[in-house]
Amino acid sequence: MEKVRIGIVGMGNMGKYHADYLIKGKVAHAELSAVCSTSPEKLSAYKDPVAVFGNGEEMIRSGSIDAVLVATPHYQHTSLGICAIENGIHLMVEKPISAHKADAERLIEVSAQHPDIVFGGMFQLRTEPRYLKLKKLIADGDLGDIVRINWIITDWFRTEAYYASGGWRATWKGEGGGVLLNQCLHQLDALQWLVGMPSKVRSFAQCGRFHDIEVEDNVTAYLEYPNGATGVFVSSTGEAPGSNRFEIAGTRGRVILENDQIKFTRNESCMLEHSKNSPIGFSKPEVWEVDIPFGNAELPHAILMRNFVEAIRNKTPLIAPGVEGIHSVELANVLLYSSLVDQTINLPMDGAAFEAKLQQLIDESTHEKKVVEISDEDFASSFNR
Questions:
Q1: In this structure, how many other beta carbons lie within 10 angstroms of the beta carbon of residue 135?
Q2: What angle do CA 228, 218, 363 make, to 5 degrees?
Q3: Are both 181 and 158 inside the same structural domain?
Q4: Which residues span the domain enclosing 93?
Q5: What one-character-per-residue DSSP string does 49-103 give?
Q6: Would you say 287 and 265 are in contact if contact means Cβ atoms under 8 Å apart?
Q7: Which pTM value belongs to this model?
């Protein structure tokens, strides 16, 4: 097809952001053909030739679109995604692809039954040069075998006003989780994309530690990988000024991403070989210190949408296949679940067990929220973290 007609379901901050670059023609061979929101006031800015709908499934079945971008609250991602795929509509889902692993498995099962329908996930960090540089270092063997990872990502500071800006925000029923599922999901996707999935985790999550919310806003987790590598993942929405430091140590060196810099310290020889062969008790391998330059991707979301459109038109491989979105969902779920049940959890985790625990949290919830509006100016773009 010459033009891919795209519809967006959910016209909150992210939906409006996607609509803006589509309207401005930032994605070749694509046009915004329809928008959908249950809030009529969010549709008033759109008019012919853009069709407006108040129901996502109605838009999907309308014949107005070839592809849909789902940018609704989390729980709707699975049902709308399944509806799209079963109706022959190509699917791009904002993070997370589902609120929990069991739903992600349901969505992926339907996708497998319709292999001609393109299913993408909006994981734009995969387009960022900083993470592409890290991936190349790992793939080229410059780090050797990974032995340790540490990611402190605590610069997600959010105020009470942020959490009050939507009735679904920071609730078990509306969102299914807190900092792990909402803010950190891109980091969790990047983590597994770079170093793979851990084999076991032990996590400590505090719910409502810094805010009047029922979900987790402070997390410290230990991860262990199949090759024996270990890791620590720390995140919070209540810590200011916060940090964003990602460190990967391997047998051939160490790389640190922090403060918009990549610093690579390369061992001249493998540390394990040096340990075995050196006659000196306190010696270390000689090292090279390297600063690795990088820029920022221009409109990383649009880059993924261009890739999505070309996958539809020309079968171009996806940068972020939707089926891979289950990994970040599983990590978000298991890091919370480990804390809730106070146990070390082996992966892959039991999606049904977490779903049951989440339903218990929903049933027991008594939290009430007063919803206030948050201005567009307060929607800060921090997409390249």
A1: 15
A2: 105
A3: yes
A4: 4-123+299-320
A5: TSEEES-HHHHHHTTS-SEEEE-S-TTHHHHHHHHHHHTT-EEEEPSPSSSSHHH
A6: yes
A7: 0.93
